[in-house]
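Structure in, sequence out. Go:
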């Protein structure tokens, strides 16, 4: 940053120009949050667990993991779908859809006001999910190969599709706007939020349901990631020590499940009804490395650009970011790579910028992980604390930033930046901000 008088003047003018652009457009705020997470169900439980640094990595209980290289996961162990869905319908869908329906219902409950008929007629549902009903498909394929076609569920043809997740949320809440599921790997839910955000900014809608839902804890998915060499296999006998982003002893990510869904509204409409507003979505940045199916581009050009675009779209400068919600999946390559990217984007500010990974507590839920990061950022901003990176006992020499190790810290936060990456070189970032009425 130029510290001469001219540099300061130019920086000031740029900041005012970006704020003027912000004032001319509609704004998107969060008025309801539903969390169905390995560390707690419901917003209050999720926030309390974050603040306490509660680790939710456990031995797999959804099926017998015998013979699998990885036998631990971030499961929502106390989830009963019948609380949210009629028992006769539970068997017609995969677990990811069940988690999504529950989170959407909790988000609407958290909003505190039911949708009126006008809102129901136009509200879109845009949900990110990487695998949809693949867990359902695995079971049905097993029935087919073992017993033939007569034992296959008649609901298999729809239950396996990613589109069922958003469709069932729309149906359960009686919402008639467009219903879309986005399956784009680990950026799925960030991409879904970006589309919902764009829908409100454009005036296409004044309200939206968006977020992510995924159940990636299944034998086939674990087997696939094990063959890729990206999943943790060294902590099967010590689950509470698994999932160690930025730690020297990390050995890959721990697979997980979960759903985080948000009610988004246009700011003026929400303010007019005196809604409780939890945060504002300020800007997104989306790019693609176009480099390799699984390995990020070592140059980091386009992941840096996605972060820079999000900051600029928010009308901010890099030094304005108070907290970085890292992708931080705990693989050998990613954590060093992300650290280098943070240094490139933030310069000297990188060394005073708190960085942490929610995956250290709940594992990696793939398509819904971006929504988990957004929920984490909102919790941090609204409740005044920095979520920790738990299990960071032996920092990697190449990971030398402030990852908020071990336990949370009190903090006053204005702006958080959430970073997500996906296979295929996909990058998606979003700035989450504390609401300022005079922005």
């Amino acid at each position: 940053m130029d510290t001469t008088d001219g540099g300061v003047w130019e920086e000031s003018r740029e900041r005012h120009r970006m704020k003027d652009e912000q004032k001319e457009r509609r704004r998107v705020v969060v008025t309801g949050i539903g969390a169905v997470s390995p560390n707690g169900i419901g917003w209050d439980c999720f926030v309390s667990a974050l603040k306490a640094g509660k680790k939710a990595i456990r031995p797999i209980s959804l099926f017998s993991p015998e013979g699998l290289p990885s036998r631990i996961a971030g499961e929502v162990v106390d989830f009963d779908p019948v609380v949210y869905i009629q028992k006769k319908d539970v068997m017609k869908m995969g677990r990811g859809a069940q988690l999504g329906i529950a989170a959407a219902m909790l988000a609407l409950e958290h909003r505190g006001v039911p949708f009126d008929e006008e809102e129901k007629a136009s509200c879109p549902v845009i949900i990110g999910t990487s695998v949809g009903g693949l867990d359902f498909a695995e079971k049905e394929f097993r029935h087919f190969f073992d017993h033939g076609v007569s034992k296959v569920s008649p609901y298999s043809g729809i239950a396996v599709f990613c589109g069922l997740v958003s469709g069932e949320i729309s149906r359960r809440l009686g919402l008639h706007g467009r219903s879309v599921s986005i399956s784009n790997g680990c950026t799925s839910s960030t991409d879904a939020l970006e589309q919902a955000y764009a829908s409100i900014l454009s005036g296409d809608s004044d309200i939206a349901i968006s977020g992510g839902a995924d159940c990636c804890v299944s034998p086939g998915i674990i087997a696939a990631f094990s063959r890729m060499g990206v999943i943790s296999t060294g902590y099967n006998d010590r689950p509470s020590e698994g999932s160690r982003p930025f730690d020297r002893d990390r050995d890959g990510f721990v697979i997980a499940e979960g759903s985080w869904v948000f009610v988004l509204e246009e700011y003026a409409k929400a303010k007019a009804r005196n809604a409780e507003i939890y945060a504002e979505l300020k800007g997104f940045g989306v790019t693609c490395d176009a480099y390799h199916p699984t390995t990020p581009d070592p140059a980091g050009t386009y992941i840096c650009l996605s972060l820079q675009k999000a900051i600029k779209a928010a009308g901010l400068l890099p030094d304005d970011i108070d907290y970085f919600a890292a992708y931080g999946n705990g693989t050998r390559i990613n954590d060093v790579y992300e650290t280098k990217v943070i240094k490139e984007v933030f310069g000297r500010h990188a060394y005073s910028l708190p960085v942490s990974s929610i995956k250290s507590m709940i594992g990696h839920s793939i398509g819904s992980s971006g929504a988990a990061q957004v929920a984490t950022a909102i919790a941090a901003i609204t409740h005044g604390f920095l979520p920790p990176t738990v299990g960071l006992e032996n920092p990697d020499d190449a990971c030398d930033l402030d990852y908020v190790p071990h336990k949370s810290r009190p903090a006053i936060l204005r702006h958080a930046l959430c970073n997500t990456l996906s296979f295929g070189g996909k990058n998606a970032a979003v700035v989450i901000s504390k609401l300022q009425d005079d922005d």
